[in-house]
Design brief:
Elements lengths: L1 H6 L2 H9 L6 E3 L2 H4 L4 H10 L1 E3 L3 H10 L6 H12 L6 H16 L1
Amino acid sequence: MSEISVIGNAAANATRQTAPTTAPVEVVAPEATTGTAASSNVEAAATADRVEFSEHAQILEKVHQLPEVRQDKIDAIKDALANNTYLTNDKLDTAVNRMIDEMMG
C-alpha cells in the first residue's frame, strides 16, 4: 500500500508533466507537405516523425487524474481495525441484510 501513496506525491507529478498521454502524433516537415507530385508524398511519408507514449505512461496519466486520497479517513479506518472497533453489530447487520437482498432480488 505504500506504493499507492507515492503516486500522489510530487514525484509522480513530475512524470505527469513529461509524459502526457495522447494518441500517437505524426509530425511532417513543412517542406515535405508543399509538393504536389506523387514523389513528394512518398518522401513526406518517409520523413515523418512519430511520437508514441508507452502504455505505462498512459496508465500513470490515468492514475494522476484520480481524486485526492483522504488520508484522515484511511488512518481512522486503520486505527479502528487495529483496535477491533471497526466491525460493529450495526455494520454486520447492514452487510448481512444487503447480502440477503442481493440473493433474493
